[in-house]
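WARN retry 2 of 3 for item q-0093 after timeout on previous attempt; input resubmitted unchanged.
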Amino acid sequence: MVNTSRIAFATSCDLNYLAQAHVLAESVKELYPNSVFFLGLNERSLNLKSEIKQLTIAFDQILTGTKLHPKFSELEHRYGVVELCCATKPALLKQCFASGYDYVIYLDPDTFLLTPLNEAIEFLMLEDSDAVFTPHLTKLGNLEMEVSSMKHGILNLGFLGLRRTNAVDNFLNWWDLRLETMCIRDPHRGIFTDQTWAGLALGVLKSKIIHNPGYNFATWNLGDHRVSKKEGKTYVDEFPLVFAHFSSFSQGGIGNFITKYKVDTSTTYLNILDHYSSLVLQSSRLLENVISLGVEKEHYKHRKFYQKKPHELKLTFIDRLNVHWPKLLKFLMWAKSKFKK
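OK item q-0093 returned
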């Protein structure tokens, strides 16, 4: 019997995705009422925590600003919204472990849990396990989706399960360090935010990749599988649907995907999508006063080092020196000028 009080669930978002994160948290609490849910909210406001707590009990721990990441101020001036929410993820997971939990399940804010994560948690309970991942694709045949997966990472980090071990601690420290300056979106150089970096974990962690299509059933694999209802339960092919990932939901991306690829979606899936939409609307209304506090993050438009430039990786390195070792940076620039002469 799984002791769910030892499991922490977590997600990372900003106010734009707060309603979806709330729907996720409530779906988790319905199946794991004794678990603790950590919300990494990538905003600076110190009042957000108390205001959200007054409106809902779904979030047990709410971390914002420097409470979420000690270098939050640097990160938010360096990255766009997506990159920022990805860059703080390792720090969020480290804090879950630091709070005393033995297992951490990370889910993206636009996921929705329908049935227990038995396969993932049972593996994490094994003494020689470290991590559980899911791939973008569990079926091949769509060339465009295959190329997209290779660009954005074979693994999809909308889900990640970790067990507290020395290897996982080392991995999170390394991942956090890389994402401080290299949580960029540049698939042509093989880097896509946190995902492609996390793929390297397969070489250092004792991991399980779940091939069950009921895990991380998402927009990009919608055309590969059939969703149906049998005896009151929802299935993806012959597997129970564990959680759905409504990627690009707020931008209308699901409908665009269905239209573009002429996906023959089942009535069952459309019913789930409608149900999810109604839940997000309810949460939006519940949290409206907090969500409205969000302001356009103008500083994202003026990032000095992280624009799409030919020498982005070099600038990333220079930026790191500039932040941590200004004297060494000045010396390197001086030496470079002398060498040219």
